[in-house]
Structures are given as C-alpha cells and as structure tokens.
Specification:
CATH topology of the largest domain: Rossmann fold
CATH class of the largest domain: Alpha Beta
Distance between the termini: 25 Å
Structural class: alpha/beta
Number of strands: 4
Helix content: 40-55%
Number of domains: 2
Strand content: 5-15%
Mean pLDDT: 94
Low-confidence stretches: none
CATH architecture of the largest domain: 3-Layer(aba) Sandwich
Strand order of the largest sheet: 2-1-3-4
Number of helices: 9
Order of helices and strands: EHHEHEHEHHHHH
Length: about 210
C-alpha cells in the first residue's frame, strides 16, 4: 500500500501540495509517497461527495486527505468551515477509512496560505523591486488593512497583484511559492492542522 492519497478541488491546490510535500524536512515528516487526484466537481464536489469519492482508494493507501476551499463550496452560508470539516470527519469515521482519513477545509480559500512576509511571494508574483512594494500597493487599494498580515479576500488580492504586474495566472506559481516560502511563518489554522496530521501519520525517521 502507498502512504497517502489526497483528493483536492483544483489544480492550484494540487500544485501547492506537490510543492509542500517535496519538503518533508520543513514539514517535520519523513518522505511521503503521495498521489493527488482532483475532484471533477471541484469544491462543491469535495464538500458533498468527497468522502464517497476518496473511499474508492481506501484499500490502496494507508491514509487519505480530502482538501478544498470553504469559499466556493456551496456551503458558505449553511455551515462554518469548522463545522463542515467536523461533519466530513464524522463521515470518514464510519467509512472504510475509519480514523485513517481526514478532511481539511481551507477558510476562506487556499490563497490564505500564500500570503506571508516571505520575499518569495513578491518574486513569484512579479513584484520584486517594484515601487510601491506589494503590500503597500495592497493597502492602497484596500485589499490589505494596515497592521494585518494577510488580505481578508486572499484570492482576489493575489489575482489583482498578478494583473497589475502583468504576470499570467498559472498553477505553477503556487508550486513555486510552496517550494520556497517559510513554513514556520504560516499560522493559518488549516495549514497547522495539515502539518499536525502529517507529522502524526508520518513522523520523521530516526537517524540510524
């Protein structure tokens, strides 16, 4: 059996996870043999049919993760990210996975993981050496409030920054950021839970 299967909502999250999982030492895990699949119905499909979809892989992998954005899932007004995640984990507990699979609902969306004080974000988005700087520009347009670390609408802010820098949108940008950005600086609840789950399932191997 392989280590881990992850079902995600889209290519951006797929590339982000590929970048993160290429850095097991930064995550605090051993190397993890992982396959990632995209749900054909994106965030809504993950929210409604994700447990059923990933359960098809239960006899091929030791563990499973279902990951998608709360924003765009169709559940935004019906339930909170935490309540939705708990409901999905309850469904996993009575599925073929038992406790060996978990759901992680990103709130509001993946891009909240991107925004930090790393210079790599500026470089990847085409803002290196631009004036004003990226965060100053975001504040000026109301995407970011003074004193805050991340925009309240992270995806809109990210896409606006790319447009301003005339940088084409591409899932590869997420891969580039995930391969370089400091993982110790991200305090997002879903990201910390993601790391915690992986460390629990795949602890670092002891030196021989």
């Amino acid at each position: 059996m392989k280590d881990l299967v992850i079902v995600v909502a889209d290519k951006n999250l797929e590339h982000t996870l590929n970048g993160l999982l290429s850095r097991p030492e930064a995550l605090g895990t051993r190397a993890i043999e992982t396959d990632i699949y995209r749900h054909p119905q994106h965030d809504p499909g993950c929210a409604v049919h994700g447990v059923e979809f990933i359960s098809n892989f239960a006899n091929q992998y030791r563990h499973g993760l279902l990951m998608f954005d709360h924003e765009g899932s169709g559940k935004e007004t019906a339930t909170s990210p935490k309540a939705l995640q708990e409901s999905l984990n309850e469904s996993f507990a009575i599925s073929a996975w038992g406790e060996q699979a978990k759901a992680i609902v990103l709130a509001p969306e993946l891009e909240v993981w991107i925004w930090g004080d790393s210079p790599h974000v500026d470089e990847v988005t085409g803002w290196r050496n631009r004036e004003p700087g990226l965060r100053q520009w975001l504040v000026g347009l109301g995407y970011l409030q003074e004193g805050e670390a991340k925009p309240s609408r992270p995806k809109e802010a990210f896409e606006a920054a790319l447009r301003e820098a005339q940088k084409p949108r591409s899932a590869s940008l997420y891969l580039q950021i995930a391969k370089k950005v400091s993982l110790r600086r991200c305090k997002d609840t879903a990201f910390l839970e993601f790391k915690s789950i992986l460390v629990n399932w795949f602890p670092p191997q002891e030196s021989i």
